[in-house]
Design goal:
Elements lengths: L8 E7 L4 E7 L5 E5 L6 H10 L3 E6 L5 H13 L3 E3 L8
Parallel strand pairs: 3-4, 4-5
Antiparallel strand pairs: 1-2, 2-3
Protein name: MBL fold metallo-hydrolase
InterPro entries: Mito_Persulfide_Diox, RibonucZ/Hydroxyglut_hydro
GO molecular function: sulfur dioxygenase activity
């Protein structure tokens, strides 16, 4: 098994101010990544991790509507190829 195969890449990010978690998942073979519920406080750390692991952020998943998630999703979208994904019934969609 080479370094591009194997166990899924997973990182957890914690925002101590809001006490909320965000997650990064990636396929070690394709390097395609997704983040779940990014927070503004963790965007820089997420981007550093994505770059450090040579990942391609393709999906930005928002599971609940909060301004911090929305702004973080847009911040990530602005500097990556990521597509923001949320439920079709989410407010504003």
């Amino acid at each position: 098994m080479n370094s591009r195969q194997g166990i899924m890449i997973f990182r957890q990010f914690f925002d101590p101010k809001t006490k909320r978690l965000s997650y990064l998942f990636a396929d070690p073979a394709t390097r395609i990544a997704a983040v779940v519920d990014p927070m503004l406080a963790t965007v820089d750390s997420m981007l550093e991790t994505i770059a450090g692991l040579d990942l391609s952020l393709q999906y930005i998943l928002v599971t609940c509507i909060h301004l911090d998630h929305d702004h973080a999703a847009l911040a990530l979208k602005a500097v990556t190829d990521g597509r923001v994904v949320l439920h079709e019934r989410a407010p504003g969609v």
